[in-house]
Amino acid sequence: MALLNILGKLFGNKYDKDVKNIMPIVKQINDKYSSFSSLNNDQLRSKTKELKNKISEHIKTDKEEISSLKEKAESDISAEEKETLYDQIDKKEVVVIEKLEEVLSEILPTAFAVVKETARRFTENKKIVVTATEFDKDLSAEKDFISIEGTKAIYNNHWKAAGNDTLWEMVHYDVQLIGGIVMHQGKIAEMQTGEGKTLSATLPVFLNALTGLGVHLITVNNYLAKRDAEWMGPIFQFHGLSIDCIDNHPPNSDNRKKAYLSDITYGTNNEFGFDYLRDNMAKKPEALVQRKHHYAIVDEVDSVLIDDARTPLIISGPTPRGDVHEFNELKHKIDTLVSAQKKYITTVLSDSKKLLKEGKKEDGGFKLLRVFRGLPKNKALIKFLSEEGIRAQLQKTENFYMQEKSKNMHIVDEDLFFVIDEKNNSIELTDKGIDVMTGNSEDKDFFIMPDVGASISVLDNSDISESEKAKQREILMRDFSIKSERIHTVNQLLKAYTLFEKDVEYVVMDNKVKIVDEQTGRIMDGRRYSDGLHQAIEAKENVKIEASTQTFATITLQNYFRMYNKLAGMTGTAETEAGEFWEIYELDVVAIPTNRPIQRDDRDDLVYKTNREKYNAVIEEIVSLTEQGRPILVGTTSVEISELLGRILKTRGIKHNILNAKLHQREADIVAEAGNASVVTIATNMAGRGTDIKLSDEVKEAGGLAIIGTERHDSRRVDRQLRGRAGRQGDPGSSQFFVSLEDKLMRLFGSERIAKLMDRMGLEEGEVISHSMVNKSIERAQKKVEENNFGTRKRLLEYDDVMNKQREIIYTKRRHALFGERLSLDVSNMVYDTCFNIVNQSHEFKDFDSYSQDVMRILTISTPVSEEEFESKTEDEIVDITFEKCLENYKLKSSNIASSVLPQIKNVFETQSATYKNIVIPFTDGIKTLQVTADLEESVKSEGNNISTAIEKGVTLAIIDDFWKEHLREMDDLKQSVQNAVYEQKDPLLIYKFEAIDLFKVLMSKINKDIVSFLLKAGINSGENNIKEEKHILEETNLQTSRASDIPDANPQNPNQAPQKQKAQPIRTEKKIERNAPCPCGSGKKYKKCHGK
């Protein structure tokens, strides 16, 4: 590290070089900015139109070529020609994106200068008067910061943001221009907290929005999404750019679709991901809400793309027998088991203390290790480990028994009922535990898995009849399945009782178990632990156990954000994860210098032996700081600790606010007060990101905001975010962490060396150590955790990459069916593939009978070749002949269907066209029936020619969706089953990849075969009046999202249930206009007749 510092001083580091390369562009921006001061307001606004025209002119020729190619591709030409044309279209679209980047780089100085000049004018003028456009008039009907007077539009420089009246008083500094350039280049801008990331983002957002392809600004929670959209919105709207926030609108609604069609769209990461999944479950093009993914800026990019990347977004629905489980039946046994272990551990710990006191270190250490293996979170154990020499003794004993791959560890574990490995979050039931669980029940093998292989071998060698053997096999497999599920349930219940604590990992609210995000401290509504763990916790807490669900659609945030043409990010803490950003996303991190030097005093950590000593010291520090008149932000890692400190402060008579997952509704009010003199705010990680604590001059003179951390987090980034709340924009402030050897990080990874140091120094109770070397030791422990987490994330994402490749193929195929533009080519390819499979299976063995039967059964045509031709011709020749014959037959069939259904369609059009828009045609192959939707007017105009396309669309979508859901379930099962490969010294990931390829090949073959077979066999249901009006019926599928929307009107658990009535809110962020009042747009009409329609 010292060598790197020396080399950096000699040659300059990467970040300095990055900034140096950008400075010439900053100079160009400032030169343009200076020249714009002479322009009037209308001339400044006209610059936006000039820039838009320049962009459209630059790509005009390529756009025209794409339109021409699409027109040719949709004409009646061969499949080969279509494929060639679509390849050309795809290549041309890539060229357009490249040309857009060229022209945007060229106009960047002008565009950035326009935004900076606009910010200056809003800062220096209470009102800005411009000539009113139609956009201004429409905007005035919705927002109260703009009014229309005659031909003029008047913009005020204050408006509502997050319910508070906000005065605009910001102009971009040079460091914010640098940040904007970095983000436009598709990199991550690491800007220190308080340096104005939100304002800096307005620059690349404005520039890229000029393309008309849409810009997404993604935040970690809906409070920030809504606030930033309202706060920055008028700067964009002044230039005629539309802006919206998807979190303001329910999923699948017209308003959410409109939000995506805006030039600039704000929203939370989860909602963007869920909308993508919902779009890929849509049955009609009109139901889609998202456009193509062009450019996104991710706020708090490390939280979204690192911490949340491994958590998949899942849309799920009910599964057969999903409410059948044994959690309630088995939880009493687990309760008994855990109580027995606690009682036993208490005795062993007492014996250990006694033996160690007598100097019998070997025996005492043995019993201490047994306690640690039995209940590592036992509070008495944690306290004992903080005493002099005890942790060192535990480490020494554990190292001895872990020798030679832990071959003697079973001696330690033999008297335990179960063994816990806290580091790996795993738990294992012992033989003694199984005996306790079985108790007096008649079946001693109640929790023992049968040896299926051995039992089947005995069965096969027996003399019983084949039918009896089959019956016995079935009983054996059923027994295996039941016991496998039972043992899984027991393991999950044990985890719930011993590793997951209420008010730490989760909270219980409204009779539901809700997960608390470890990184942000916020409740993740709707998200559930996977693999039955959530149901186990529900059983433990005696709340309703929800039924298990089946995955319908899933994607990780990592793979969602990879779809954008250009991705950028901003945060205050990306440098520690720079390697991961580059390796996974190819995102470069650029550290932006601060506008003013940081004045914050970051003090060395204070390390205590026990939590009691630590919390006493924290309280004394709070008392001292409040007397100085300084506001204090106390950071905690859990709801439980925040409430504990709150109770202690209450007994001391110190006023305070608590901000945690249970009290998130008061976030805006608490943050607004947090900067006042002597105000104490206790907060979980919720306050660590995106919260701007404003300080008065009085507070700055007193020393600024004081940050007190009550525990080091696993991740250095979270600690840096907390520190960053103080010392913003050169403000004074201080930060200090209080640590104890009982903290989770110190227990698991960091305390051995520090414990030895404290023992050598002979520290008494209440005494503390503080040194920069101790800080470095703690940061090394955090680095260990980060490296471990990166390995875990990378592994999980490699699994998802396999799934993602399959998802892309299926979703592309689905989109072609939805829009129909490339569907004819897909159908042609599916017919060819099916013909190839039929010929391939029989030609090698010259099995003409099988070929003939398959052709008639699947393709519904007579054999196109004789037996002699089948044996003499090559495989490719027979495939081509079969394909041509099949395609010819399909075209004739489509034409016959169109002509047979046309009279009924014309009749409906003549009699019901005023009320019917779309019609439903029942289409059946004799086994199942599909309702195919077609446009009534188009059907008449095209003489029924669109009917075959409508049938192809309906059939393809229905069959793909059915098989894809089943495939997702099989992939989930596969992921679980391959984990057993480690026992065979094999890599589970490698086996998963091989097996997944085979499963996907089978899936594609089934999809192709079923679609082709259905299209070739099926026909219109016979009978009169089959054609009816399309009815929009709400599907009662009870779809759920793994992270539910924060929108109050939406009820993801039960979409059919009426939304609960919301309490009236005291603050309105939008203008309320009486229906009979004059419309604010200046038209002279009543509001209800104009913009209030």
Describe the structure in brief:
This protein is of the alpha/beta class. 54% of the residues lie in helices and 12% in strands.
Structure description:
The chain is of the alpha/beta class and 1093 residues long. Helices cover 54% and strands 12% of the residues. The chain has 37 helices and 30 strands. The strands form 8 sheets. The chain has a 7-stranded parallel beta sheet, with helices on both faces. A hairpin with a 2-residue loop joins strand 2 (146-149) and strand 3. The relative contact order is 0.08. Mean pLDDT is 82; it is low at 1-7, 1032-1037 and 1043-1070.
Describe the global form.
Answer: flat
What is the CA-CA span between the terminal residues?
A: 67 Å
- Give the uncertain stretches in residue-range form: 1-7, 1032-1037, 1043-1070
Derived structural class: alpha/beta
Helicity range: 40-55%
How much of the sequence is in beta strands?
5-15%
The tally of helices reads: 37
Going across the biggest sheet, name each strand in turn: 8-9-7-10-17-6-18
Main sheet: strands, sense, barrel: 7 strands, parallel
For the secondary structure, the number of strands is 30
Mean pLDDT: 82
Question: What is the radius of gyration computed over CA atoms, rounded to a whole number of angstroms?
Answer: 34 Å
